[in-house]
Amino acid sequence: MTAKVPYADVEVGTELPARSFPVTRAALVRYAGASGDFNPIHWNEKFAKEVGLPDVIAHGMFTMAEAIRVVTDWTGDPGAVVEYGVRFTRPVVVPNDDKGTAIEVSGKVTAKLDDNTVRVVLTATCTGQKVLGMSRAVVRLA
Amino acid sequence: MALDQSFVGRSYPPTAPYEVGREKIREFAEAVGDAHPAYTDGEAAKALGHPDVIAPPTFVFGITFKAAGQAVTDPRLGLDYSRVVHGDQRFAYVRPIRAGDRLTVTSTVESVKSLAGNDVLDIRGEVHDETGEHVVTAWTTLVARAAEED
């Protein structure tokens, strides 16, 4: 495992490059197929509304997969992720148009741990509201 | 309706092996829009110290969630799957998953709760490879939202 960021170069408070990830209905259909999660709340507007949701929502795991890219793009080695956890606090509502919506993700190092690892806390928002809570990863640096 | 508390602590036998295919990894990486070469290019993965292409960090969820289905869809548990949303998800990795792994999952129901009318189910999935090596543990919380009162 060869992360490109040296542990010695990182301090508590180091900010990771922020990213914006688009989410469209087409992306959700594609994710459903790739992940095997065909829950209709992620593609069927009528069903989503019947169970009390505002509209079709993104798979939480789609949002989780996008958010960690702020970490994996930073370290250079996706295999350097040791732990990763999130709470899905608010659904990412995806309108039925070509634009969809976007998930904005930023990250900050909040602790230097043993064995060349650091803790990163991620912030993910959609239309200005937090969609992930307690979103943190531990990653092993060089 | 309250979930059956007797499910707490219940473990299910290991699942049949899931063989991680390199094209499945590619499909997943494309679906999340991630072009990192470690997911598709064996040489790029090797340059990072991996024996073969690796899977993105959340890839394993598809395998552990299917295994969790042994409990989730058991009618005796009483979970209304049409109202289920994903509450929390956490992974602890021993090593990344890679193409060619043959993975089995042992699922355990960690807790069954009712919070403000919502049913909350915590399931842990321990993932091992064909040599018996522990690869990753996944903790999944599912919430069946209370139906609105009419």
CATH level 1 name of chain B: Alpha Beta
Write down the oligomeric state: heterodimer
List segments of chain A where confidence is low: pLDDT < 50 over at least 5 consecutive residues: none
CATH topology of chain B: Thiol Ester Dehydrase, Chain A
Give the averaged pLDDT of chain B, no decimals.
Answer: 94
- CATH superfamily assignment of chain B? Hotdog Thioesterase
Structural class determined from secondary elements of chain B:
alpha+beta
Give the domain tally of chain B.
1
Helix share bin of chain A? 10-25%
User: Based on DSSP secondary structure assignment, what is the total number of beta strands of chain B?
Assistant: 5
Q: What's the story with the biggest beta sheet of chain B? A: 5 strands, antiparallel
| Proportion of beta-strand residues of chain A | 35-45%
- Major sheet of chain B: order of its strands? 1-3-4-5-2
Q: Characterize the overall form of chain B.
A: elongated
Beta-strand share of residues of chain B = 25-35%
Q: What is the distance, rounded to the nearest whole angstrom, between the alpha carbons of the first and last residues of chain A?
A: 9 Å
Per DSSP, the total helix count of chain B is: 3
Q: How many E strands of chain A?
A: 6
Please state the CA-atom Rg of chain B, rounded to the nearest Å: 17 Å
Based on CA atoms alone, the radius of gyration of chain A comes out at 16 Å
Most residues in contact, chain pair and counts: A-B, 41 and 41 residues
